[in-house]
Amino acid sequence: MYIVQNGWPAANGGVQCRMILVKLSGGAVPSMSANNVSTVTLTGAVTDSDAIRIPEGRRLSSGEIERMLLEARRLVETAVDRHRNEGRLLTAMESDEGVDAAERFIESAERTVAVVLSGRNDQVTARLVARLGRAAARGIDVRVLGRFGLLENPSLLALLDKYASGVEVRLLRAPLQEMVLVDGLLSVVWSRVEGPWHEAALVRAPAVLRNQRTLFMAAWSLSAALEDHRRLTGRTRSAVARRILLALSSGRTDEVAARELGVSVRTYRRNVAEITRELGANSRFQAGARAMELGLLPLAASSPPDNGSPDDST
């Protein structure tokens, strides 16, 4: 499997890459040396059908990358299924056992901890958040990814504020598999069965771990900081702001956009300036990219909806 190389944010809000190629070993057979898990390698044919390719120099839109992340997640889950019976490389566990293992691994982390949380089970999340805060306090690079829905979970936000103020938390629109990845060497992942924290698996298979690292870092590059979300006011989240952002993203001139919104050009420009400032952007173009990143715009923004209009004051 190849990972994202030389990736950086593109001006359109996506990511420009020299190459992104995700591959999984089809039917890979593990070979073990002296039963030492640290030397386990996976061998087997890799086919183009298991790859996600992006041509060199291609600029990716947020929608394209999110579709790629969904496909990459599917490939990770397929790899987990393939290696489920490979003994020490992947061990099926009950959900509670998985949480216990994740706690131990976080406590013993030496360099990095990457976590995807749903916040669906407050009791379990509280246990992990406290450990994450302690790990960050002793110098471990701790990163937490969640979905936008976490903003509607005040108990989880309070836990993060209280126990994990030193942890970097970001939010993303695309769904991700819940996991705790420690030092890139082992992980605990939870199934996507409906309900909180179902079957877990302890992963040591190098190929699966590489895919998990790649998926996490690609998602991280598309995400926005939790604090950026929390700073947004109701005004920027309103239907009016959404219509203005849609107009900006579609390339409409101020005159056309103002006429469609039923306001004066002066009022429209004032609203644009206020929204751009609140988004922390330095330009209108950057404001559109930030709006996509923060989930204020749909993945396929075309024309503004007809509902809502700002007050026309001059």
Automatic annotation (TrEMBL):
Gene Ontology terms: biological process: regulation of DNA-templated transcription
MF annotations from Gene Ontology: DNA binding
Origin superkingdom: Bacteria
Xref: InterPro entries: Sig_transdc_resp-reg_C-effctor (IPR016032), WH-like_DNA-bd_sf (IPR036388)
Full protein name: HTH luxR-type domain-containing protein
Gene source species: Streptomyces cyaneochromogenes
Source lineage: Bacteria, Bacillati, Actinomycetota, Actinomycetes, Kitasatosporales
